[in-house]
Amino acid sequence: MAIYPGTFDPVTLGHLDIIKRSLGIFDILIVAIAEDSNKNTLLTLDQRLDLLRQEIKNIQDSKEGKTIEIVSFKGLLVNFAKERGIKLITRGLRSRYDFDFEFQLFSVNKQLDPELETIYLPSTLDFVSSTFVREIYKLKGSLTNFVTENTAQRLKEWVGYND
User: Fold this and answer.
1) 126-152 tens-digit pLDDT
2) Structural domain boundaries in the chain
3) Is this model's pTM higher than 0.85 or not?
4) Is 130 a catalytic residue?
5) Residue 134 annotated to the active site
6) DSSP class per residue in 76-134
7) Quick check: is 140 catalytic?
8) Which CATH class is domain 2-126?
């Protein structure tokens, strides 16, 4: 069992890739959406939860015997992991810049909980962060290469200013 944490604002093709590949390693994957974030989110927590649940349906159907649980959490990830008895975090890496950030995060988490481990999956796609996706959306750019058609449609319905 592992946790895949993030804000998922919005869920990208890269996130979905990491979820699929994590299920190749773990039987149970907890996709944990951070409620407390210093990011200026585009979508509400409920919208992010709903969108992720919609997007993982196809993944769940194709991964027989595997379980994906979508939850939200408040506070530190290490505390959430302790409460759930989880000792493993899975994270995606797009570039060396991600690695620099992720290594710092790993170090902090390790100091807070020495038993918590992190596994990194390098990106198999050319994908960008949710931050860039939000910016592209706000500036009326095409999201075709970054999110599913369903996610793009939900953004238009919920946020509405990309017309």
Assistant:
1) 778 888 899 999 898 999 889 999 999
2) 2-126
3) yes
4) yes
5) no
6) -HHHHHHHHT--EEEEEE-SHHHHHHHHHHHHHHHHH-TT-EEEEEE-SS----HHHHH
7) no
8) alpha beta
